[in-house]
């Protein structure tokens, strides 16, 4: 899908040329280095997705829908070459919630996709908008987890405007994606669709550590919002996190302590981090055998029905 | 200091009337309920500070400087009534860095204040501005730790604009204050003033959990910024955190694992949380005796020279 390289430019343009060339080659490879790295790290199975920002950054809705559909057809072909090693997440143009719901259903039904990965807002539109209830209803009905992956800010906050180094992956993405996830939570999406499963990478964009404070401060300052559960409870009932992009044992243990071992999944932010680094981290993490089994495969098997 | 109640309005206006009355009474009390609560929780000593936003929200620089000075004189009188129970943080108008440096020095020298607590930006101005190097130099020379406390956003990010419930203490403050602290770090303040000690409340505004990712993503996307150490290292060399406002054991253990037990201090977000709740949390936290001693008093004694 060479056209997708165009959309990836914003995410690679600051890299040194050699690093960028290697990264783009790894993104395009499905059969060689990717599988060799999995083998070396004893990774049996991965679910593949279109890299950010993809169609979430395409303003033309019809073009975005066409390319997302082509992407899904392409991914289905690639994973069919290695069905025991690869699964797929749908790439969805989110411009039209009804069309996104249909495309999710098509890819789950026809290709066995495990859910969808969405790269944040679509041109500044967030999915707590009631118009997206139709999409969330379908995801719930299909029992298809939705992975909310970072995007660049639709509008860079004044706080970070003068400091480009903080606007992206180093800090800003977690603010943007964590804030988006909280808009869903405090917007009542999980109350309206209690079976919905949302997945967050990057150790849950660090939200698990804020659970106690969410409850404490929301109780003091509800601003007219009512929820069926304390905010912290949704981090067990509806939110799952992955370790992708955060290879630190104390933070992993903290997240497991906050969310329970059922809701934390090992994952590799490939190719933005190396499979070897991520595997070395999880192999060395001080987890008991039962927790390790859950984090490394049991939770993924259950959540994605592998 | 009844005039300060005016500045506190923004932080209390959404509370139910009874809660608000109780909160304001507790803020005004230095001799009764405050000490009774400390006694009940076996808290020997606390360092008091002006509640947010104080003079950081006052646009008139001269008025702010006068009121901050009056505040410091007032606080010195109050703590003199209970010198074995109370210490003070200076309240500083930060409009003029040279004046702020002088007032910090005066209060440390004349009143034995332990440092200063600053409620975030001053009317949208952040302290990575090189004009503040004069202030940071004085804080370093005095070995006076600076506690950076939350403020409301100078400009609410578009991401949070439609969701007031996320703009303040529940989420936005951590973004604002964490982002401000990162502006100092990535702006090289700790490289220029390596002896500077910055204190963050609310479990470090959750930045400790991002240490690994700061290093990983900053290495990939430095945006022309150079630092003497990996970003994570400043969380041991220059940054101290307190538990104020976050009473969750897994998160505490994660923070200690990330920063080391030397840099984490027990504190109570009084009167915004109850001393009883905070003490029950720390008493129940699964800390070994040496770590407990550091977190509960050793670190504070060392950092603030008690």
Describe this protein's structure.
The two termini of chain A are 27 Å apart. The first copy, chain A, has one domain (4-304): TIM Barrel (Alpha-Beta Barrel), CATH 3.20.20. Chain A is globular, with a radius of gyration of 19 Å. In chain A, α4 (61-80) runs parallel beside α5 (97-111) and α5 (97-111) runs parallel beside α6. Chain A has helices at 2-12, 17-28, 33-40, 61-80, 97-111, 133-142, 172-186, 189-192, 202-205, 211-220, 234-237, 249-259, 275-284, 289-304; strands at 46-48, 86-88, 116-118, 146-148, 198-200, 239-242, 264-265. The longest helix of chain A is centred in the N-terminal third of the chain and has 20 residues, at 61-80. By secondary structure, chain A is of the alpha/beta class. The mean pLDDT of chain A is 95. In chain A, the strands form 2 sheets. Chain A has a 5-stranded parallel beta sheet. Chain A has a two-stranded parallel sheet with strand order 1-2. Helices cover 49% and strands 7% of the residues of chain A. Chains A and B meet through α7, α10 and α12 of A and α7, α10 and α12 of B.
Considering the chains and any ligands shown, give keywords for the structure.
homodimer, 306 residues, alpha/beta, TIM Barrel, five-stranded parallel sheet, two-stranded parallel sheet, 14 helices, 7 strands, 7% strand
């Amino acid at each position: 899908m060479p056209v997708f390289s165009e959309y990836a430019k914003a995410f690679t343009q600051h890299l040194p040329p050699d690093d960028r060339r290697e990264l783009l080659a790894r993104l395009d490879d499905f059969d060689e280095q990717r599988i060799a790295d999995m083998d070396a790290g004893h990774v049996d199975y991965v679910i593949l997705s279109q890299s950010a920002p993809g169609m979430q950054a395409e303003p033309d809705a019809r073009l975005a829908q066409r390319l997302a559909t082509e992407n899904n057809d392409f991914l289905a072909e690639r994973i069919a070459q290695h069905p025991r090693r690869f699964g797929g997440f749908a790439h969805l143009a989110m411009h039209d919630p009804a069309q996104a719901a249909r495309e999710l259903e098509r890819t789950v039904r026809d290709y066995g996709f495990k859910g969808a990965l969405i790269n944040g807002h679509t041109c500044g539109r967030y999915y707590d908008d009631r118009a997206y209830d139709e999409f969330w209803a379908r995801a719930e009905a299909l029992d298809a987890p939705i992975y909310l992956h970072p995007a660049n800010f639709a509008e860079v906050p004044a706080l970070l405007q003068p400091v480009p180094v903080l606007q992206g992956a180093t800090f800003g993405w977690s603010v943007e994606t964590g804030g988006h996830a909280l808009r869903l939570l405090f917007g009542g999406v999980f109350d309206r669709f209690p079976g919905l499963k949302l997945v967050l990478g990057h150790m849950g964009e660090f939200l698990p550590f804020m659970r106690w404070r969410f409850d404490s401060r929301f109780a003091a300052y509800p601003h007219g919002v009512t929820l069926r559960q304390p905010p912290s409870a949704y981090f067990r009932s509806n939110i799952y996190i992955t370790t992708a992009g955060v290879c630190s044992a104390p933070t992993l243990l903290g997240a497991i302590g906050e969310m329970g071992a059922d809701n934390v999944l090992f994952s590799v932010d490939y190719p933005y981090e190396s499979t070897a680094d991520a595997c070395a981290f999880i192999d060395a993490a001080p987890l008991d055998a039962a927790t390790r089994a859950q984090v490394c495969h049991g939770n993924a098997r259950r959540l994605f029905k592998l």
